[in-house]
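>> Question from a student workshop board

For tomorrow's exercise we were told to take the sequence and the ligand below, predict the bound structure, and bring the output to class. My setup keeps failing. Could a helper post the expected result so I can at least see what it should look like? The ligand is flavin-adenine dinucleotide.
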Amino acid sequence: MAPSTASAATHTAQVVASRRCGPDAFVMELEVDRDLPDCRPGVFAMLSPADGSGPVLPRPFSLYDLLTPTRLSFLIQELGTGTRALGKMSAGAEIEMTFPLGNGFTLPAAERPVVLLAGGVGSAPFLHYARQRVAAGAGDRTCYFMGGRTKDRLYDHQAFLDCDITTQLSTDDGSYGFHGNVIASLDSQRLAGKIPADALYCACGPAGLLHGFADYSREHKLDAQISLETYMGCGFGVCNACPVPTQPDGPLGAWPWARTCQDGPVFPLTSIVF
Ligand SMILES: Cc1cc2nc3c(=O)[nH]c(=O)nc-3n(C[C@H](O)[C@H](O)[C@H](O)COP(=O)(O)OP(=O)(O)OC[C@H]3O[C@@H](n4cnc5c(N)ncnc54)[C@H](O)[C@@H]3O)c2cc1C
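>> Workshop helper replied:
Here is what the output should look like for this input. Compare the format with yours to find the bug.
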């Protein structure tokens, strides 16, 4: 599978569809005029409206789904100027897109169980992950924990339920699925003996969730990778706006900083100080 940044290119992509999937989020499908590389889940794109209606700097978004060799989608939560500008783009509008960027999650051999864990739009990298596991015949060894504050913030969850993997939904307010956060949901399944001991764990979501998951992983000695959503300016290693401290004895070595855009956004927990 292609390493991402090395094969990155800038495209003028056309919006083919944009649909709401919650009070503050949407799924946007884009079409480009050349084949995209087949890339790992967890890679991202820098996106901005081509008509200049967004901020000067493009914004980073994880690949949500690779629908055809020339069509891909993104799951986007509206937060500020950049995401609101993208939310206004409808079919026919053009988006500047640099893709694929970053390293992505590890996809282990099909025999190895994988646990995916997401909060809110942290689910974005995991639809492509789920599809790759199903294509590899590993859907029955893939368990996905998806959490939201409320039912309507389980963004586009039907897409995951339609995949041939095990999906556990949870809401903080108990309005749907397990009542509690996604780590409590995972813990209940682990305690019930439903998660094999040799599973690889992959997580993405807001910083609070990732910190909670990092503590949980260390306590239970899980083999875990997390995808960080650190602010970034360029997306390809030039502006140095997205440093993350590394563990001197971890796999990234002695240099005290890694760049989230180029060395990440996915990091083994053992590689960073988090
Ligand atoms: C590698 C990567 C992948 C990402 N993938 C997705 C994705 O698939 N879907 C998605 O919806 N979002 C994703 N994000 C986050 C997304 O890039 C930000 O939400 C977006 O840049 C906000 O831009 P804005 O102009 O709308 O907000 P701004 O106007 O820049 O900020 C609005 C508010 O949001 C806060 N904010 C902005 N960016 C972040 C951030 N990264 N973390 C925490 N708070 C922030 C600001 O502090 C401010 O309060 C990703 C981020 C990274 C680094």
